[in-house]
Amino acid sequence: xxDFLNITAFLSFLLLIGTFVKSKVKILQExxxxxxxxxxxxxxxLNSNFLRQYIEILPSKWEGDIRAIPGVLIIPILVSVPLxxxxxxxxxxxxxxxxxxxxxxxxxxxxxxxxxxxNFIFDKFFRIKLYKSFGAELNSAFAGxxxxxxxxxxxxxxxxxxxxxxxxxxxxxxATIGLICGIIFGIYQIKMKSKTSLKKDILTEYKSGHIKDxxxxxxxxxxxxxxxxxxxxxxxxxxxxxxxxxxxxxxxMLKKLNIPIVSKITVWSYGMLVMxxxxxxxxxxxxxxxxxxxxxxxxxxxxxxxAIVAAVATIPLRGVIGYIFPIVCVSLLGFSLTWIIIFxxxxxxxxxxxxxxTLAMFGTSTGVFITGLLLLRICDPKLETPVLQDxxxxxxxxxLLGPILITLCxxxxxxxxxxxxxxxxxxxxxxxxxxxxxxxxxxxx
Length: 445
Hints:
The protein is 73% helix and 0% strand. By secondary structure, the chain is mostly helical. The longest helix is centred in the first third of the chain and has 34 residues, at 91-124. It is globular.
């Protein structure tokens, strides 16, 4: 238990140092690098072999525990997704939501396919053997961000892989590339294509990463509970961790029965299903008032920060450097096709706000949700367009199913080879294109 407190304190220290360093270093602000990534890089240096020659700041026995943290925290992060989810059913809104979700799904399938395609090319043409499941990291990193490295690591760890640490490091590296390049390229596109000037106050706010003006500081959520019964934050935490625990215990019991399909289900995929059921029961019983989506988001955001700083601080540098060539190849191909597909399909399937929709989806597909929101806010400072609503709900659908698909692809490639996920992804790409064409058949092109 002392190690748990000490490790949490160490990661907290890295987050605070990362926040301080970002506030002082201009280039880090210009690149919009999060404090958790900066803190993780500092932790990586503190844990380096070079520094250990002189002083051991991080005890060796902590390293394995810290490296496992992203895989542990990803469970409550993903399990919480269905909690508080609401989807409107108005036709006009639904059309844009479906199109947004469809394009984001197409990007998910395409990025996964690109990753496995690079694996295939290196194997067959360059005679370079990458590890069997190399391919899922691109989508996990670009569309999932640094926090989703835990999905890759935990899935491989559960499969008995010996290279899960390397795969986690590759994912974190790709996530950093996607985040920085996505923001820089997005802002460049705004300057080139937007008729309005860039809002310097918004850029300054996002660069600094803090809001000094108290009149602009927003509330993190609503008090749905009174402290005389239970603290509101504790109530939300109890539901998220409680359902996560319920999922772990019940899934282990089901796996002992050796049911074929159940034995292959990951704990977070199963946990999301359990949370769906719990949330549906809460809504049916009229308890949905007790959940505030903002508070839930802050909980998952907090867990993600700790997952990121832990993942970055334990990157296996030697292994990642050995994969630098395939990392560069998959980044260039993935980045280019992501922009082309989103840009072209936004013009094809949306009747308004093409640039705003493109940048919101592009930011999310190369960084995280907040990256897309940043680019959207630069184009639409007051968020007066309906893009945020369509983009948020469309993203929620892919955020729910994306990790399940990533897990399935990793399992197929690890158990068999890269041809199996590639075949599945080609089928999904074709199906999604046909569906979008059918769904939008009345739209003028």
